Amino acid sequence: MFTLPDSWVWDFWFADDGERHHLFFLYASRALHEPDARHYRASIGHAVSDDLVHWTRVPDALVRSDAPAWDDLATWTGSVVRHPDGTWFLFYTGATLTPAGNVQRIGYATSSDLMAWRKAPENPVLEADARWYETLADGHWHDEAFRDPWVLPDPDGDGWHMLVTARGRTGPADDRGVVGHAWSPDLRTWELRAPLTEPGRGFGQLEVMQAEVVDGVPVLLFSCLAPDMAAGRAVGTTGGVWVAPAASVLGPFDVAAAQQLTDSSLYSGKLVRRRDGQWVLLAFHHDDPDGGFVGTISDPMPVTVAGGRLVRELAPTDHNRTLPAR
C-alpha cells in the first residue's frame, strides 16, 4: 500500500520505463483537516517501484502555476505516454476559478527521463466546446467538467486519442456524463471531437477513465459515486469503480451496461500489467466503514475475465463489504 503520513493521496496513474513502474498521484496536506478541501490544494507527486507494492517517493512532478494561469488553482488527474522519439508526455488537468465557478482544461508537460518535467508553453491544448460539451454557462453542474485525460495510441497507427471526463449538452443534469474525445497526430497539437458516448446512460460523470484490452477483452474503466449518478442508477449503491463493455479501446462503449468492480471503499481504479503478465487493479481507499475519507493507495488486486466480464479478487485491505447485485 502507498501512503503518506502527512498527506491524503487519491487519483493516480502509471508509466512503465521497462525497468520500474512510475506512480503519479494527487496529494494534499492533511493539515487542511477537511478532506474535501484537498481538491483545491492538489499537486502531482511521483514514486517508483519494482513490484507495484513497495514504493519509493521521488521529487514531485508538477505543481500549480502562479495566477493568472489556466492551472493556478490545482493540477489534477492525467496520464503518461511516450512519443516514438523517446519524449515522455504527462497530460494533466489544470483547474482555475472564474467568477462563474471552477473551469477545467487539459495541457501537458514533457520529460526525457520521467523525473524532470516542463510544462508546454502552448498550454492549455484542450477545453470544453459548447458545440458538443456542457460548459458552466449551461448552469446545470457545479463545475465545467473537462478533465482526467487518458491518452492512448491509435490501434491502427493513426496518431493518438484522448478520452476525457466530460458532460453532454442534453438530458437531466444528473445523467449527462459522456466519454469526451480528442485526436492528435503528434501529441502536441489536438483536435477536439464529438463525444464517443451519449448522455442518458446513468452517470453524471465518468471519472478517471481507462480503456484497455484485458486477456483479449476490451473494457472501459471509470469511477462514479452515487451522488453523481442518475437517480435510477444510484438506487442501492454507494458507487465506486465501474467497468463497461467495449468493442475496442475506442468504443463503442456500452456505458448503460456498466457493472461495479468495487464499492465506494475503493475509487479511481487503474489497471496495470505486472512483469509476469498478470493484470492487476489498484485503487485509492476512499471511505472507511464509518464513511470517513481514507486517502491511501491499495496494493495490487489481481483481475481476470470470467464469462466475458472483468472481475477482481478481494484484497485484505478491502472493508469486507458486499457489492450489490447490479
UniProtKB/TrEMBL annotation:
Family per record: Belongs to the glycosyl hydrolase 32 family.
SUPFAM superfamilies in alphabetical order: Arabinanase/levansucrase/invertase
InterPro entries found in the cross-reference section: Fructan_Metab_Enzymes (IPR050551), Glyco_hydro_32 (IPR001362), Glyco_hydro_32_N (IPR013148), Glyco_hydro_beta-prop_sf (IPR023296)
UniProt-recorded name of the protein: Glycosyl hydrolase family 32
GO terms for biological process, alphabetical: carbohydrate metabolic process
Database matches in CDD domains: GH32-like (cd18609)
Gene Ontology MF term list: hydrolase activity, hydrolyzing O-glycosyl compounds
Keyword field contains Hydrolase: yes
Pfam families assigned to the protein according to its UniProt record, in alphabetical order: Glyco_hydro_32N (PF00251)
